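Summary of Year 1 activities. Much of the first year was spent building the evaluation harness for sequence design. The harness presents a backbone, in tokenized form, and records the residue chosen at every position. We chose the following record to illustrate the format because it has been used consistently in internal testing since the harness was completed.
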């Protein structure tokens, strides 16, 4: 995609604060190191290269703010700085000036397909600190002993900052600071088909965190974990207890080229699959089973007021631990049938639940007596199997009723 250029001009305090570097391997990749005062570094455009938004709640952020307040003169020594991807840069030593050229792209278009990646590839939290400090500069300068901090900025342009290679650069830089895998997957557009399927089903994707530090009602790995429990062809001889135990394994299944198509089969029923635990929780809470018995279980917490989770149209007065809910919900994969390359419901899971709710509740009560820790329910294969059997019995009963009605007709 062709874009117009935008220019950012930065001024150095001293020419010795800037140094060009030659790339040891690729002469078409250009590097420049600069030590910039905060009031100049803040002029940079954040861009769209960084894979995760900054969080002011993170300990590193708070530690940087403390350094600014207490030891501003050593900030550039304690902080690893910013890596900045740009189209090109120029250093004018006669005017102590750096001119940085970047794509001129509106912020709202940053995530669109074909938009080149530019800006802060590493150091997003550092840049957020700089912005916060500069906005409050009058407060800091009231202290006559306070010095404006500097930050190291590594400018990168040429072949090394082009879109073909930027993902690998950003991934490597951010993996070193322990960026979560799902954030990198989002950066590489691996969730695009999932977003499309969720939107098509009526599920608001704005409620879903696809990157770390996003405070949303849902989490993409949570959604994938639930879907992974409905991979009917995968869980024939065993139950998906491993998916409860490790969301990371579920994420690996989804992002792997060899297994991702298994998830695609669920896209026509995705909203039902994702929100089934909330449906079960709500129906239990409505009195489908004895509430007095339900409320006494360790896996159940009675809420002070009704709760409706955004994205799931179900209200509950009881919060049931996912270790108890997930095996119940996953058992309804028995209601799925494969038509072509997509699953559909051969029996409505909500109708099935009405018939097996009491049995599922009894299973939970009995198993709760055998485990000391609620989370053990999520890895108890006997519990998974009992839930599955309860659902299958209900499915068989519905089929028998349908056959009986058809024979009379």
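For this record, the design step produced the sequence shown next.
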């Amino acid at each position: 995609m062709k874009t117009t250029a935008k220019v950012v001009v930065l001024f150095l305090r001293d020419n010795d604060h800037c140094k060009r570097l030659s790339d040891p391997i690729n002469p078409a990749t250009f590097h420049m190191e600069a030590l910039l005062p905060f009031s100049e570094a803040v002029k940079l455009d954040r861009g769209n290269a960084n894979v995760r938004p900054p969080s002011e709640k993170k300990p590193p952020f708070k530690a940087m703010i403390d350094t600014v307040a207490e030891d501003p003169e050593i900030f550039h020594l304690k902080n690893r700085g910013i890596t900045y991807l740009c189209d090109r840069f120029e250093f004018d030593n006669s005017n102590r000036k750096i001119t940085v050229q970047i794509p001129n792209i509106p912020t709202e278009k940053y995530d669109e397909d074909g938009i080149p990646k530019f800006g802060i590839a590493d150091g997003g939290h550092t840049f957020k600190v700089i912005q916060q400090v500069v906005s409050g500069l009058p407060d800091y300068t009231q202290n006559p002993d306070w010095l404006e901090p500097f930050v190291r900025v590594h400018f990168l342009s040429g072949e090394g900052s082009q879109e073909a290679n930027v993902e690998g650069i950003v991934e490597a830089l951010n993996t070193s600071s322990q960026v979560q895998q799902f954030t990198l997957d989002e950066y590489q557009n691996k969730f695009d088909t999932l977003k499309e399927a969720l939107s098509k089903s009526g599920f608001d994707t704005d409620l879903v965190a696809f990157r770390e530090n996003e405070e949303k009602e849902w989490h993409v790995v949570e959604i994938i974990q639930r879907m992974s429990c409905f991979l009917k062809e995968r869980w024939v001889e065993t139950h998906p207890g491993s998916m409860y135990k490790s969301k990371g394994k579920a994420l690996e299944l989804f992002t792997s080229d060899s297994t991702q198509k298994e998830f695609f089969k669920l896209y026509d029923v995705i909203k039902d699959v994702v929100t089934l635990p909330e449906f079960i929780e709500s129906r239990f809470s409505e009195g489908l089973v004895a509430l007095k018995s339900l409320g006494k279980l360790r896996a159940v917490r009675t809420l002070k007021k009704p709760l409706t989770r955004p994205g799931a149209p179900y209200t509950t007065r009881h919060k049931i631990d996912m270790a108890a809910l997930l095996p119940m919900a996953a058992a309804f994969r028995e209601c799925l049938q494969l038509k072509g390359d997509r699953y559909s419901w051969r029996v409505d899971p909500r109708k099935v639940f009405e018939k097996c709710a009491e049995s599922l509740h009894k299973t939970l009560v009995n198993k709760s007596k055998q485990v000391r820790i609620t989370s053990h329910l999520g890895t108890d294969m006997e519990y998974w199997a009992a839930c599955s059997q309860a659902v299958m019995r209900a499915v068989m009963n519905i089929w028998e009723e349908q056959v009986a009605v058809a024979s009379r007709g």
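Residues 5-179 form one domain. Quantitative recovery figures across the full test set are reported in Table 2.
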